[in-house]
Amino acid sequence: MEALQGAVTEPAWRSKPSWYLVAQDDGMIPPPAQRMMASRAGSHVTEAPGSHAIYVSHPELVAAVIKQAAI
Predict the structure, then answer these.
(1) pLDDT tier at 3, thresholds 50, 70, 90
(2) What's the CA gap between 25 and 49, in Å, rounded?
(3) Which residues of 18-42 are buried (b: 16+ CB within 10 A; e: fewer)?
């Protein structure tokens, strides 16, 4: 429970590279909001058609983005 009360003093996205996969058919987080968050974080962006659960419908694409981040 103590972890839930902790304060983030510096978000990792401000100092570390990040990657973002925009799910173009997401009904939970609108794609424009996803793009804004990715832009704010300076993320490397990949876009693909898919829902909020894009990791289920397109696991190969998700794995490719993860591999890009690991290089």
Answers:
(1) confident
(2) 6
(3) bebbbbeebeeeeeeebeeebeebe
